[in-house]
Structures are given as structure tokens and as C-alpha cells.
Amino acid sequence: MSILTPADLSPIPEAEAPRDCPRCPRLVAFREVLRAEHPCWWNAPVPAFGDPQAWLAIVGLAPGKHGANRTGRPFTGDFAGELLYATLEKYGLSEGTYNAKLGDSLNLKGAIILNAVKCLPPANKPEPQEIANCRPFLEASLAALPTVRVIIALGQIAHVAAARALGLAPGGTKFGHGAEHLAADSRILLSSYHCSRYNQNTRKLDAPMFEAVFERALGLHSETSS
Q1: Of 168, 169, 172, nearest to 184 (Cα)?
Q2: Phi, psi angle pair for 110, to nearest 5°
């Protein structure tokens, strides 16, 4: 039986890491441990998910252990995905039903989800070199999405990674919930607190705050499309 690769599941296969990407030794070692413990899980770099003609790109941090690392689809099967996919549905950026697993009827329209780091990091904390090692895949993803005009970065790590991928100097591109920055190619970077369980449970982020960022993105899309 053939084993699926990230490119097999991706709307932008040319921008994906190989299934056994060797760039980050610590992440490779962790991946091999989980492949032995959970052979039915995805346990590989997680590919992009969404519309290859998207105007909106959402950049997350990295796969969650019991979410994307298990299922092979960003934000699928973990707590953070509940708010993200509910928000995408609310604003007409998805169709079908999200059932937290591959094989549900969910599709995105006008939106695509990427990650700053494609492999699961221990304790959900990638090291700086690992983020840098994965940046070429984020850059390739954005290059493969010429219709993307707005990028929403979820959390500070995703914000810095997206800023660098867009050619923005992180030192002059301050992170903050609702922060907005214009890249040289006229793409706009918006920032949001990550929709993690921790941020929601501590009330650092709630649904209205999260939705406000998407409302701003839709407003920018309307302005640039008119």
C-alpha cells in the first residue's frame, strides 16, 4: 500500500516538504518516536489546506500533536480548530461540515491555511533554527498563491515568520492583536492572538476578538477588489 505524502494532499504540491523532511534533527527524532507509538497517525510535515485561488492565507504556528500531526490537516482534531473553522464558516470562507477529521465534507473557499513550521515540535515550541529551516516552504507557498492579498498570522511566531516571508523586517513589524502591516508587493499582514486552548481559557482571546480580525480582512479584500 502506498503511503500518502504532503504533496498528495496539498492544493499547492510544489511548495510542500517531503514526507521524511530531514531539515530539523530534533523534529525528525520526535516524528520517529511518534511513528513508532502511533503508526496510524499522519506523523509527517502537514500540508496546506484550502483554496489554491484564495485571497486570504492564514498562517498558524505548527501542527498540534493530537490535531494536525494526527490527522494530516491543519487545525483538524484539536481545540484551536473549533474556533478557526467556526469563524471561517461564519464569514463564508468554507463550505461543507467540519467534523474534526479527514473525510468530512469541509472545503475552504477564498482561504487557505499554512503553517510557519510544518512538523510537530515538542511541547508545541519550535526552536528559532527550526522556524528558519521551514521558512523556504512558507515562502514557496506564498509564491504559489498569486491571488492572496491578505495574510492573517496566528500568534507571534507565525507573525514573524510571515513577515520575513513577505520581506518585512520583523523589528519594524510589531506583533499585536489586530496589528496591520503593508508589504512591498501590496499584500497586507494582519495579526491575531493564536486561537489556542490556553489563550481562549485565559480569555486572552475570545470569539468576538478573533472574528474582528477576519472582519478586517474581509474589509480589506473588498477595498482591494473594488
Answers
A1: 168
A2: 85, 0
Q: Kindly give, in sequence order, each residue whose CB lies less than 8 Å from that of residue 4, ignoring residues fewer than 6 positions away.
A: 19, 72
Pairing of strands 111-115, 56-60: parallel
- 123-179, pLDDT tens digit by residue? 999 999 999 999 999 999 999 999 999 999 999 999 999 999 999 998 899 999 999
CB count within 10 Å of CB 226 equals 5
Q: Which residues are CB-contacts of 164 (< 8 A; sequence separation ≥ 6)?
A: 135, 170
Q: H helices within the chain, ranges in order?
A: 6-9, 25-37, 68-71, 79-90, 128-143, 156-165, 197-201, 207-225
pTM: 0.97
Give the three cell numbers for residue 152.
492573517
To which residue does cell 492572538 refer?
193
